[in-house]
Design goal:
Helix content: 25-40%
Strand content: 5-15%
Number of strands: 8
Largest sheet: 5 strands, parallel
CATH class: Alpha Beta
Mean pLDDT: 88
CATH superfamily: Metal-dependent hydrolases
Radius of gyration: 19 Å
Strand order of the largest sheet: 4-5-6-7-8
Shape: globular
CATH topology: TIM Barrel
Low-confidence stretches: 1-16
Structural class: alpha/beta
Oligomer: single chain
Number of domains: 1
């Protein structure tokens, strides 16, 4: 009898993980992906990965609408200033960005702003009246989140931004990309307007500070952090591939073909969390942030006895 009980307890987390509704808070649909992934194929791949709802970033921004308008309410778009490859390094000094962002949000087609790359050497520090500050203020005006990507090894810049813009809801892409759990916690403790995404924190990208061990289990510091802040994390795939040749001009981006693999990894560590915490991080936090009218999409199905 004891053996049967132990076997039951081992099987249940796997089955729960397999059926756990997930909200992919970090999907890209880019000019370099359309050649190998049509909107119909992208939606099929989302279904194969059992993604309930998702957030799409288009390059250019209008490309995201090609997915969301076919998704039956399953996807929402956020507005990106990027119109072509390389704009991630130019947007912060482009004076047209704020005007374009306002028009996009006023159209009602977009549920946020991002992904904005704040990369040392390219994006200047935020000062009153600069593009970054104006976008943060605009997002607060429209009450939409801003997805920020910080590509550096300190948390101080994010703390400076989130304390400077307390009315702006910030989604921190990749939980700081290369930062350890303690640095991420320092930001969450300082700013209650920040939630962290864990897209691309996997064995293939941002590998210098992993969140899991080699068996796919959450490292103790990360597990403790997620349990301490269950309402402040969400998960996504960030389907960009290969990562070492970003925005290649001569070959298509095949990130969507890797979607299921990314989600197999994330479902693995989610199964290591209490069920109520797993549901929040896997789905509910992202749905509440980007699509609060989505209803009960994050309610897990009952497991057959």
């Amino acid at each position: 009898m004891l053996r049967l009980l132990l076997l039951f307890l081992l099987i249940i987390p796997v089955r729960v993980s397999a059926q756990l509704p997930v909200a992919d808070m970090h999907l890209h649909y880019k000019w370099s992906q359309q050649e190998v992934t049509s909107p119909e194929e992208a939606l099929r791949l989302l279904g194969a990965a059992q993604v309930a709802v998702g957030v799409v970033i288009g390059t250019p921004a209008e490309r995201a609408l090609a997915l969301t308008q076919r998704s039956g309410g399953r996807l929402v778009s956020i507005w990106s200033p990027y119109r072509e490859g390389g704009d991630w390094s130019r947007w912060a000094t482009d004076k047209s960005v704020v005007q374009r962002a306002r028009a996009a949000l006023a159209s009602g087609n977009y549920s946020g702003i991002g992904e904005l790359h704040l990369v040392g050497g390219f994006a200047p520090r935020s000062t009153p009246g600069d593009v970054t500050s104006q976008l943060m203020t605009l997002a607060a005006e429209y009450d939409v989140p801003v997805l920020l990507h910080t590509e550096f090894s300190r948390a101080d810049r994010m703390r400076a931004l989130c304390t400077k813009h307390p009315r702006t809801r910030i989604v921190w892409a990749h939980a700081g990309a290369i930062l350890p759990a303690a640095a991420v916690e320092s930001v969450l403790a300082s700013c209650d307007n920040v939630v962290a995404g864990l897209a691309a924190r996997d064995p293939w990208r941002f590998v210098n500070n992993p969140i899991t061990d080699t068996q796919g289990k959450l490292l103790p510091a990360w597990r403790a952090l997620l349990l301490r802040y269950p309402d402040r994390f969400m998960v996504g795939s960030d389907p960009v591939w290969p990562v070492d040749q970003l925005d290649r001009w001569d070959e298509a981006d095949t990130g969507w073909q890797e979607l299921e693999r990314f989600w197999i990894f994330h479902r693995g560590w989610l199964a290591d969390l209490p069920a109520n915490v797993a549901v929040r991080i896997a789905c509910k936090n992202a749905a509440d942030t980007f699509m609060p009218t989505a209803g009960d999409v994050c309610v897990p199905p009952l497991i057959d006895e």
